[in-house]
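Holo prediction — fe (ii) ion.
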Amino acid sequence: MVVRFSPFSVTLSQQSHHRRRSSCFSKQVTVSCSYGMKRNELERPQILSSALGNSDGSRVFVVSDLHTDYDENLKWVECLSTVNYKDDVLLVAGDVAETYKTFFVTMSLLRERFEHVFYVPGNHDLWCRREGKNYVDSLEKFNKLLDACKRIGVETNAKAVGALGIIPLFSWYHESFDKEKDITGYRIPSLEMACKDFHACNWPNGLSNGDISLSLYFDALNDKQMEVIKEIQKTCDHIITFSHFVPRQELCPEKRMLFYPKLPKIIGSDSLEDRIRSIHGAHGRKDASSCHVFGHTHFSWDAVVDGIRYVQAPLAYPRERKRRMIGGENWLPFCLYADKNFSNRLNPCFWSNYYSVNPRKPHDTKLAPWVARFYKKNKV
Ligand SMILES: [Fe+2]
């Protein structure tokens, strides 16, 4: 996600250590912010039985927003163990790299490290601004990325891995996804000014970033895998769906909390949530066996809504990791599934933890202090 006004975050260190022979430790971290919130969080590596090398079946790791155009992020991928994940699955929830060349290098590195890699494209992956005349438009680049995945052995279609069904879902955002009250009275830049997608993507006639057409177009591509999905629904004990974009507005902080309060207009898709519910059911599958992984907003998230667990585990930009203390070089992909079960919650996840104890108040449009000082009021 690139907006010229980065969404404010007070997220905490996100350390997920899953080394097969790591030792268990924890330490207390105190974090405070200017909105009167003060939390003690455990910086806690998650130690699974599988971490000690006796895993029963494949482990599934998740990550989004690798942004390996940044040298530090490419280095992070290069530094992932070439031994520890040999039997494992990695889900990459979009925004790998802006250029095809870096995308190809990154996905090849991941494929060398994991037994299975699944991928869905994000908005940055479809940017054309640094590709010269290599692509007529972002749709052609989209198809070239899927072809590259096929060559490298990266999955972009639904598939069962043992008793676990993994379903990548194509999607794009639309402005009407945002149903909450707008912030008024401040000079907040337009979507076109703040969001680079409006300039860095090119779309053929009939498709536009400014309406619902892209959301409907990408969602319809998922129809092609409905037969495989039906089979997965019948035969698999657990199902993980994943997308780059956000399926529900509750999975993003309220506007008054965000550095760019219009962010909810460029993050999510109603068709995506409908698609997810058509797979998992209106209330999720029985025995807490439904999970959806997403990316894009760079907020770590882990919450259950209407019977489905929603998880975001972004690598994000180097500057965001520094500012948010997401964990820097010690951060590893989050292990979501091991020993034929879903793992404990991703921790820490500042905002989903915040909303687990504080109700959402979308009618409250008074900007949080850290946001208010950033914007000038409209002249009356
Ligand atoms: Fe994105």
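READOUT: The domain at 27-372 is CATH 3.60.21 (Purple Acid Phosphatase; chain A, domain 2).
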